[in-house]
Amino acid sequence: MIEIKNLNKRFATATVFENYNKQFNSKKMCLQASNGSGKTTLLMIIAGLEKSQSGQIMYANKQHSSPQKYVAIASDRICLPDFLTAQQIIQLTCKALNVPAPIDLINGFKFSEHLHTRFSALSTGNQKKCQLIITFMKRAPYLLLDEPSAALDQASIHYLLNLLDNYLSDKPDGQIILTSHEPDVFLHQGFECTPL
Amino acid sequence: MIESLSRYNALMSYRYLAYTTALKNLLAQLKNFGLLFALVLGPAVLGIALLLFLGLGKIVDSHEHARFSAQLALLYLALQAVMLWAVAPAITNSENRAFQAHIFKPAWLILIDCKLLLLSNVWLMASLLIAVDLRLQQWLQVPHFILFMLLQWLCGLMVIYRPYSLFYGFLACSILVLLPFSLDSLHYHSGFLIGFMGSLFFPNMNLSHKRVVSSLTSFWISYFLEHSWSVIWRSALFTASLLAAVQLVEIRSDFNHAIQVMVLANCVLLGSSLQFDCFAVLQKYRVFFQTNGQYRRFYLSHFIPSLLFYGAATLAAMLLLNVLQWPLVALAAVWCFLQQLLAQKKPAHYALVWCVITIGIALIA
């Protein structure tokens, strides 16, 4: 389980977290808060992609110097190479992670016909699908999803829910944390809501 | 009618505002070179303007050296295309094109594009100044100059509407001027016109999706193929300065040392300044490569494009100019790396250090 201790995070003009403590007790959690309160920043800090001024992030009571190895994250804050096609981004990720091409994920999200489209030319929903595909490819024990259902069509939301259902089956110490302003679909899948 | 005119004026005012705003943003991007422009280009503005007219004079008066004049005309067109390429988004206000097309008549957009294109094309204005000064008898002696101005206008239009056709056009024209026989100027310019007009019928072959991108090398290659502007303007500037250096060496061999220093300083400047672009790419995609566990390699790789540009430019200079010495080339490579680090860590000092080192080496040489 992920635990945050005494987190302090300030941006130039605003303090986002001050001595913030939080324990994510359930395996599947849905983080809720109003816009701009720091949900995405928290996920980025947990994933080790953004630095805080101080504080500790514990992963199953352990600290990791490179949490990126154990955490997969999908967020709009991660800028994908927009001059590449979706297929090229997926190829690059496959090579970097040393994993096979995610054919099931591509078919599941009905993404095949958009593979040759440049990322910048994809619709918002398809950009989200591309993000989700490369995140699920990593198969990391901790999965963080920032607004995963935003802009997705109904069929893709169903497929996403199926993926989330099975994700932790081979990860006994794993955990899924997501943020969503429309949490109902996730609550029906066994997610537990928690305020920030 | 009055209402229509008023709407047209509203569009014109909007477009002019968008044009000046985009140009201001473009100049703001060059702030790192501010001191450099002030120190080096400031006093040389008059010289550059004179050089522009001197070159145009050679294109007009081409009876004795038709082939050289045609090569010079092509170089002018290439430099003009590079400059217009930089301001093309400002001319067309491409970011808000759909918004404009939604509200105003398409013909108005094209008309205003043409107005702003003329306003931006200092190369064509210089030609027009010469054209106005020519008498009828002189015009009869240089009919190719009309074709040259037509080409300048056509290339401008191609930059903003059919940029990919320019590549085919320049390729065809380069072949024409490199053929082992000489034509007269009118034939050369007619050939250019046919080449550029013909290139409009070539389809846009976009093969970008066929590339396999599975490594950092292919990532950077893809990046520079999609953002070729930063390499093209550097290459054009380097080619122009190298050709000038070759001419200088032929005329004044006693200035060999100074020319050697200036050529190397130019290679360092053009190569290391590419680091500004690469650093922006590093910052933009840092998190993506962190998530893939490739950040360290990505960080190291972002120094390579500018070093490669420096290497290629130096090699070209060594092949064309026999005056470059290996120890100085090696020293300049270290200097290039230093400039790269400055571009990244202390961009405000980048230009100052380049100027100080250039003057220092020039004094020693």
Question: How would you summarize this macromolecular structure in one to three sentences?
Answer:
Chain A is α/β, with parallel strands linked by helices.
Give the end-to-end Cα distance of chain A, rounded to a whole number of Å: 16 Å
Give helix and strand order of chain B, one letter per element, not per position. HHHHHHHHHHHHHHHHHHH
Shape type of chain B: globular
Shape-level CATH architecture of chain A: 3-Layer(aba) Sandwich
Tell me the major beta sheet of chain B.
none
Q: Which pair has the most extensive contact?
A: A-B, 30 and 23 residues
Residue runs with pLDDT of under 50 for 5 or more positions of chain A: none
Number of helices of chain A: 6
Strand proportion of chain B: under 5%
Total strands of chain B: the figure is 0
Mean pLDDT of chain A: 91
Q: Spell the H/E element sequence of chain A.
A: EEEHEEHHHEHEHE
Largest sheet of chain A: 5 strands, parallel
* Number of domain modules of chain B: 2
State the share of residues found in helices of chain A, binned by percent.
Answer: 25-40%
Domains of chain A (count):
1
Q: What is the 3D form of chain A? A: globular
Count every beta strand of chain A, where a strand is a DSSP E run of 2 or more residues. 8
Descriptive account of the structure:
- The complex is a heterodimer of chains A (196) and B (365).
- By secondary structure, chain A is of the alpha/beta class.
- Chain A has one domain (2-195): P-loop containing nucleotide triphosphate hydrolases (Rossmann fold).
- Chain A has helices at residues 39-46, 86-97, 103-108, 124-138, 154-167, 184-187; strands spanning 2-10, 15-23, 28-32, 54-59, 71-74, 142-146, 175-179, 192-195.
- In chain A, strands 5-6-7-3-8 form a five-stranded parallel sheet, sandwiched between helices. A three-stranded antiparallel sheet of chain A has the order 2-1-4, covered by helices on one side.
- In chain A, strand 1 (2-10) and strand 2 form a beta hairpin.
- The model of chain A has no long low-confidence stretch (mean pLDDT 91).
- Chain B is globular, with a radius of gyration of 23 Å.
- Chain B has helices spanning 2-29, 34-41, 45-60, 66-92, 97-103, 106-120, 122-133, 136-141, 144-161, 163-178, 185-199, 216-226, 229-251, 256-272, 274-291, 295-301, 304-320, 326-345, 347-364.
- Chain B has two domains: 2-32 and 63-202, no CATH class; 215-364, no CATH class.
